[in-house]
Amino acid sequence: MDGEGAKCESLLTAKLSHEGKKTIYDRAIVIQCREGEKIIAADGGEKTIGIVRKGLVEIRKKNQKVALLAEGDIFGEIAFILNIPRTADVIAVMPETEVVFLSLSMINRLTNMKDQTQIWKNLAQIIAYRLSQL
């Protein structure tokens, strides 16, 4: 993948250098989903962060909707940071939904320490904002 194909706007990659974004998106995994498709299952062992590239996804805990995420929103950050199983199901709720997945190794491949610091700062800000909305 050339990086441009996986590219999406997200607060997670905000303020990264052009080279940093290219490094991330060159290694990203893009998944195309059908409406109603389960993208992530609760208790799954994947350790990636998902970014909604296109469409909408619903976060469900015990079949209860807890959030609706749109383009640029992230999910999977709890399992990613804490290295625990997934805490919720993630379901595509629109046809042709696309999700970009990033792994820790992708972040660690950022050679510019400012980019590495920025992505973790961005993640902390996203989580802090979500907590403030509870």
Describe this structure in words.
The strands form 2 sheets. A 4-stranded antiparallel β-sheet has the order 1-8-3-6. It has a 4-stranded antiparallel β-sheet with strand order 2-7-4-5, with no helix packed on it. It is globular. The chain is an alpha+beta fold. Helix content is 30%, strand content 29%. The protein has one domain (11-132): Jelly Rolls. β4 and β5 form a beta hairpin. The protein has 4 helices and 8 strands; from the N terminus they run αββββββαββαα. It has helices at residues 18-26, 77-82, 104-108, 113-132, and strands spanning 29-33, 38-40, 48-54, 57-61, 64-69, 74-75, 89-92, 97-103. 29% of the residues are buried.
In percent, how helical is the residue content? 25-40%
How are strands sequenced across the largest beta sheet?
Answer: 1-8-3-6
Total domain units: 1
Distance between the termini: 38 Å
> How would you sum up the major sheet?
4 strands, antiparallel
Amount of beta strand: 25-35%
Please tell me what the overall shape is: globular
Order of H and E elements? HEEEEEEHEEHH
Helix vs. strand class: alpha+beta
- Count of DSSP E strands? 8
| Mean of all residue-level pLDDT scores | 90
Second CATH tier, the architecture? Sandwich
CATH superfamily: Jelly Rolls
CATH class: Mainly Beta
What's the assembly state of these chains?
Answer: single chain
